[in-house]
Amino acid sequence: MKQFKYVARRKDGTLIDGWIRAENDLQAKRQLQQQQRQVVMLNEQRDVKSKRISRETLITTLRELATLRQSGMPLDQCMQSLQENVGDKHMGAALKRLYYDIESGASLSEAIAAQPDVFPFYVASMLRLGEASGQLGEALFSVSERIEREEQLVSEIKSALTYPAFLLVVCVVVIFFMFLYVIPNFETMVQGNGDAGALGTLLNISAFFNDNLMLISAAVAAAVGGLYYGAVYGHLKDTVLQGLSTIPLFGNLIDAWNIVQFSSSMQKLLQAGVELVESVEITLNSLSDARLRKRLQHVVLRVREGRGLAESLAEYGLFSPMVIRLIQTGEAGASLVPCFKEINALYERRLSKGLKQILTILEPLVIVIMGGIVGSIMIVLISGIISVNNISL
Q: What is the pTM of this model?
């Protein structure tokens, strides 16, 4: 979905600005009209840069807000209390903005949706349910639990990738050093000896590195800058996930994560008494996979027409046959809540197991590949020295 910055007029004539997620500007205008707001300005924002707020700070703030709200404290006073104790300046500014928006009549979900650079995109959708059911505190705890689960997953991946990444960097530095400073010293050994074979190829590559060092450095800097821009402003994450999904091992991992997100959200929504169609609509807005969100929109239409959820999911081939059968069983027995609970537990175990498998394979794989590259260069150099010595004899 796209992000739109808007300025709208409420029924009482006051102006409000914020952000809204939609597929296009027509859908964004329709959503604002459903909220009884007259659109004054609506612009698509492609560059929404996230502020440097740690997930730990975000989790702590949301949990404290949930505790204060469950104690019966009004929202504006909750924001004031949090501002007095927060230590992060960016979070302090975000809480100040939330306070002003709530004071002007906006709901908490609307105020949070107006800051997509601070809060994950799914937070506002999950909080609307709590506001509608009068269980805002529980909704805040649910949001913090999801962010905490994501943070735990990211931390496990980062900790496991640290050593392979270090090996990769060291290997690249060693290769550059050899081509720039070590291999050129062998040029005098092969002069006048005719075809130098593989050693001659290494010397040609080394000469190219030395002759075009500035150009190569500029290309590397441009590549790093492009990756950074794509990660912050573009769709690099979606592109990488789409590419990884074609690899069986990674594809199974991504599918398991999507099912965990879907089943966890559906369980909590249905347990809170939300209708099935509305639960699917709220859930699709909280998913991180853009392709899955688009396909679930068709499922929503089918369910609105009276079809079963399992039948609609199977029609578009969204999840595995096992998930479809479990949902079908839950629909037949009017027990969708425990059904989604079991699906969530099952695929959380699969996700954890698959993640450990990938990380276990990755470290030795990096060592073998990098060792093979450096070892091959050393073998060529030693073979070249031996062949030159034989020629001279």
A: 0.64
Residue 194 predicted with pLDDT over 60: no
d(CA 379, CA 207): 19
> What is the number of residues in the chain?
393
User: Phi/psi of residue 273, each to 5°?
Assistant: 90, 15
User: Exposure of 159 by Cβ count < 10 A (0-12 exposed, 13-18 middle, 19+ buried)?
Assistant: exposed
Residue with tokens 């794989």: 365
Task: Report whether pLDDT(381) > 60.
Answer: yes
Task: Determine which of 165-169, 235-239, 359-363 has the lowest per-residue pLDDT on average.
Answer: 235-239
Provide CB contacts within 8 A for 77, sequence distance 6+.
68
The CA–CA distances, whole Å, from 103 to 69, 85, 152 equal 16, 20, 35
CA neighbor of 76 nearest in space, from 109, 101, 46: 101
Q: What share of the chain is helix, strand, coil (3-state, %, to 5)?
A: 75, 5, 20
CB-based contact 260:320 (threshold 8 Å) = no
For residue 102, the surrounding DSSP H or E stretch is: helix 89-103
Rounded-to-integer distance, Cα 256 and Cα 254, Å? 5
Cα–Cα distance for residue pair 303/310, rounded to 1 Å: 10
User: What digits encode the pLDDT tens for the residues 332-353?
Assistant: 887 888 888 888 888 888 888 8
Distance CA 264, CA 120 (A): 17
Q: Is the pLDDT of residue 46 over 80?
A: no
Helix crossing, 236-244 with 290-304: angle to 10°? 80
Buried b (16+ CB within 10 A) or exposed e, 325-356: ebbbebbeeeebbebbbbbbebbbebbeebbe
Of 3, 10, 20, the closest CA to residue 110 belongs to 20
